[in-house]
Structure formats: structure tokens, C-alpha cells
Amino acid sequence: MAVFRTSLLGAAALALAALLMIAPQGTIGIAKADDSAAIAESGRALLMKFFDKDADHAALTAALKPTPDDIRAVYAAPLADNLVAMYEELFAPDAAIEPSPEHSELLAVFTTTGKLKAGDPALDEFPGGYRKLLPHIVGDVPIGRFKFVEAGEKLGLAFDGLIYVNDRWVLMPKPWRGLK
After folding, report:
1. What tens digit of pLDDT does each residue of 62-87 get?
2. Contact 44, 106 (CB under 8 A)
3. Cβ atoms within 10 A of the Cβ of 68, count?
4. Which of 142, 76, 140 lies closest to 114 in space, CA to CA?
5. Which of 45, 77, 125, 147 could form a disulfide with 107 if both were Cys (CB 3.0 to 4.6 A apart)?
6. How far is Cα 142 from Cα 124, in angstroms, rounded to an integer?
7. Which residues contact 91 (CB under 8 A, 6 or more apart)?
8. To the nearest 10°, the Cα dihedral for 99, 100, 104, 106?
9. What is the reported pTM?
């Protein structure tokens, strides 16, 4: 498990890597959940789009909204049902993830939900609430945690729950809040 730091200078290389991973159907080509290099590269390439000064951050954010099927592919009921309602509220039409102008680097950790359930060291990189979720995870899909930070910093605008499910990346942050 490694924490990857990517600067805006590396964005062109990530964009090229993302283009190379486009499958014939037009989806990001991730062969299997344990292909960690492809998972990490495609996730970082997606996240680097948020640094583009001309990006439509609301559209980028809206594209990450999980469907009920996405949620149920990762989490068991009744947690999944609670998350459907929670994420519907979270992804309001005006919601936008936007790094500040000072944020010039991306810190990201990618693994799989199966590895988290198995106690992989990457679990320590995720918020503590993920430990409560482990019994409720039903899928084995790529998952990431990321931060938009200032150069050389470790703290910044942080998110968890970037998940590759049903042939696309979605954002399911703080899912432990759906536990009742």
C-alpha cells in the first residue's frame, strides 16, 4: 500500500495513462479488482480533472453520484437503503467538489473493499468509521481515499469512498453514517 502524491505537472502523464486505459466500449478498462496499478491510475486520472481551472466542478461531482444499484453492489441492506437516501441528499444539484487555488497536489490511496475486509494495512489510511462497516461490505471493488493539498502538505480537502463499481467511479463518502 502506498500513498501517491501527484502534482499538476504529472497531470499530463495521468491523462495519457487514462487514455491508454479506455476500453473499446468507452469505459475505463480495469480488468479485475486486484489490478491495483490500473485502479490507482484510472482513479488518479479522474481526480486530476478537478484541478482543471476550466472544469465544470458541479458536472464532475454529479457524475460521481452513486445509483441505488451502485450502493447495493457494495453495501448490504439495511445500510444500503439508508445510504441511498443519504447520498440523494448529499448530491444536491448545486453540489460541487472544487479544490482551492492553493491546492496543487493530489494524495490518494487505492485498494479494494475485499482487502479492507481482510484487514489490509490500507485500512489505516481510511477514516476509523470504515472499521464499523466491514461486516456490511458485500462486494470486492476498488475503493480510494483522496486529498487535494497544497504542495508538500499532508492536510487539505479530504474525501473517502471513491469506488469503482458497475463500470464507473462513484463517490460514497462517510458510509458509516448510514449505520443506525
Report:
1. 999 999 999 999 999 999 999 999 99
2. yes
3. 14
4. 140
5. 147
6. 16
7. 61, 62, 64, 65
8. -30
9. 0.82
